């Protein structure tokens, strides 16, 4: 039995930023997500890697109650992504994507994962996201992420997946692309009509926009002086967000706002180093300190009107 | 005697957005600023208009304790700006700027304005901003705005002006351009070394970034479903910000944060209609309501750590 299930990718990344370059480092949506979520709850990860993957590199996650038994070893090499960033770290330029084992990926949710109360479907083919949904037993919260490629090439399948979920976590530009609305409030409302009760739009250094039927919530991104590598920040946000919610076990307007703040706190660590390095060595005490600093950046004394 | 002095432009604007077009409507930095600030304090405005300007159009400001005696009537026509916006309302495209009377503008601060405790130098030639500073008697807070044109063409004069002020309110892109730093924290720190104790970067729909020696504060922009015309939003922000501060009369970390929220609240009204129309008919009660809604969008319950 696990509390939080993630279905996504484990990858080898090659990344270049104005601050350095690393080759064949650990990456992938499911790995960044799990690295963050495992600070708060027990996580089961479903992904596939190639025969070249060094499983011992992610052994440290077991100490954080992560169940790695859902990682299948496929024929061929591990999925790999190569990209670079300029000084405007908001925009990644993809140099090469090698799907490798991902091409035959069909998520097999282990029996012991199927009763997870919280499910995160990281960015993969929406057809596979639907297959994963069909294998789980009525979770309390299903959250889905996607990307421009699926919006442009598998729109109908994606919308079919979106009908089956409770919450969508995507980038601001993806919200605009899916909804064909420039205004986020209008766009989110349009997507909610398909089923989801919550839409979260990630806005990079500007934080997150969150909307439900009754309210909008805006959380800033923690202002950092040194942003090193933004790769995985979105999945780290989702991991902190869902890990926190799964730990609390209650999904309400109040807990979702707190979770968005926790997601932002975790994402602020991720960008401080390449790959999963910063969160690998992160101490729980540092999360508490960063949260206190985060709060100081957005709290203000109530205004008294005459 | 007035509390808040603004030196800037009063203009005729021609504006086109995806939602409509208006010709020769009231605009200009000092007018948008005053329209907002006058809800909170008495304002003295120093600007120049042409013989074609209909002074009776701004008579309504007198009822809000605005002193219009600093508006000089110069030879020639009123300064006019013509611009348009696409669906991404963050970026204005200037079609035509006719300086007209502005070309001979030399701010003459009336005797009765010189003891103002709060001074806002809206975006004009930095040489004129310095001339204005030289005419006032030790105000509590001098705030300056500028634009890319002066950064690119009068950098040294601009930096000389910045040495004489307490706070800079500019756009995010301008902060990057002045400081030659992409990172806002680093950039703000660099500019503060010239003298200002506070730097505010306006980020359009993403709100504002504010930094002092000891802290960073981030306020969101109020999430609107219908943004009609963003012209003057920045000056309206500054007007709400400084009007609120001048009313309180105290400049501290806490009041500056509250003022930034009030500036954002006022800016959210400005974009709901063309020109100064929305704030012209705005009721004080609406400000209170919008503030309550604003707070709901960014407040979250404190997280309790184990």
Jot down its keywords.
306 residues; 10-stranded mixed sheet; alpha/beta; homodimer; globular
Protein architecture, described:
The structure is a homodimer of 306-residue chains. With 306 residues, chain A is an alpha/beta fold. Helix content of chain A is 34%, strand content 23%. In chain A, strands 1, 4, 5, 6, 9, 10, 11, 12, 13 and 14 form a 10-stranded mixed sheet that branches. In chain A, strands 3-2-7-8 form a 4-stranded mixed sheet. In chain A, helix 5 packs across helix 6 (184-192). Chain A is globular, with a radius of gyration of 18 Å. The termini of chain A are far apart. Chain A binds chain B through residues 87-88, 182-186, 203, 206-207, 209, 211, 215-220, 223-227, 254, 257-258, 260-262, 288, 291, 295-298, 300-303, 305, and chain B through 87-88, 182-186, 203, 206-207, 209, 215-220, 223-227, 254, 257-258, 260-262, 288, 291, 295-303, 305.
Outline of this structure?
Two copies of one chain form a homodimer. The first copy, chain A, is α/β, with parallel strands linked by helices and 306 residues long. The first copy, chain A, has ten helices and 14 strands.
In DSSP terms (H or I, runs of 4 or more residues), the helix count of chain A works out at: 10
Q: Tally of extended strands of chain A?
A: 14
Relative helix content of chain A: 25-40%
Which sheet architecture does the biggest sheet of chain A show? Answer: 10 strands, mixed
Would you tell me the structural class of the helices and strands of chain A?
A: alpha/beta
The general outline of chain A is: globular
Query: Cα distance, first to last residue of chain A?
Result: 56 Å
- What kind of oligomer do you see? homodimer
What is the string of helix and strand elements of chain A?
Answer: EEEHEEEEEEHEHHEHHEEEHHHH
Radius of gyration of chain A: 18 Å
Unreliable stretches of chain A (pLDDT < 50, length at least 5) are none
Percent range for β-strand residues of chain A: 15-25%
Pair with the most extensive interface? Answer: A-B, 40 and 40 residues
Indicate the mean pLDDT of chain A: 96
